[in-house]
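Collaborator request, handled under Task 6.
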Amino acid sequence: MKEDWLDEQTEALLDFALKSTCSQGGFGWLDDDGAIDRKQGRPLWITCRMTHVAAIGALLGHPGSREALDHGCQALASLFHDDQYGGWYSQVNWDGTPADSAKSAYPHAFVTLAASSALLAGADAEALFQEALRVSTTRFWDEDDHMVVDQWDRTFNHLDPYRGANANMHTVESYLAAADVLDLIGDGSGAEWRQRGLDITERIMVQARDNRWRIPEHYDARWIPRLEYNRDAPADPFRPYGATPGHNLEWARLCLTLWASLSDPPDWLRQAAVELYDHGLTDAWAVDGHDGFVYTIDWNGTPVVHERMHWVIAEAIGASAAIGKAHLRDTSAELDRWWVYAETYLIDHEKGSWHHEVDRFNKPSSTCWKGKPDVYHALQATLLPDLPLTPTIVPALYQQLRS
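Structure tokens returned to the collaborator:
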């Protein structure tokens, strides 16, 4: 796609994103029309993602983004923060009370990402950034397993035995961003966080390799895969049954970002990226006779949930761009294919943003996702093709502005 077209998409997504700003604090879940859906409450992960998005907008000089960035930081410092026990609530009601007081690794990873991005974008986020790293280290990082645990109760006294690859994947993302921030404007201690990211990635890649590159998503407390987990709830948006080929693509990109960021990277990172990418395409692209990536497959490769999620094509764009930049092979034709698909079926040219889900016939649907909750994946897809493998997105934009 032409650079000016991508720039237009970036600006349009930022315009849509700013509609999620809530006067009561934080950011809301947007419906198909771009209005805040008050039935959904205010999940922590949305406020974190939108703070990250606002940081991108602020660095790009997009109108309203600087105010939205400060708004998001304020919500993370107060509305979502548990002043008594530490950490952040997973969701708050519209009256400001916790709707879900559990402390989960998945949204906490996004607190770290949001704080990292906010700090580089010039927000008053140093305290937020340092606390996010401290909570991740003291509450979620398991030094014995070199992975993050998944969910505590509010008091951090009861730990759920479930372990998940998804929370660890986004923790890798956040650790790489934090490492870049620490090296750019901190104490230069980014290597520690990259090593943690490498440790997490290595364990998940071993599991993927041993399972024909279909990543086990769910585990018990000893990190033994639970392959039948949620068989009775296959379309769960966060813990679906079976393998999620879209995560192959996301992990492929992270493997190459990690590879490029390490001073002496193991070559298995590049090998894993290619295997993940190729198997993700083989298992999921148009396997039911229609273009698009199916959401999930069983362990024999048969589609389970046929709906196509917008975030998967966004990650296909990011992974294709990364493989090309790593000089593993020419993926330009595939990159063009993903953008044509996105423009044809996902980009809502009338109401804005991207349809978050379409059915197997590529018609808008809502089996897993209602509305257009946030623009995080789509926005990153418009930026990644023109950015280097390392540093991560916001640090790369920060460096461009300073050069």
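The cover message to the collaborator said: "The first helix runs from residue 3 to 17. Residues 3-402 form a domain with the Glycosyltransferase fold (CATH 1.50.10.10). Please let us know whether this matches your experimental observations."
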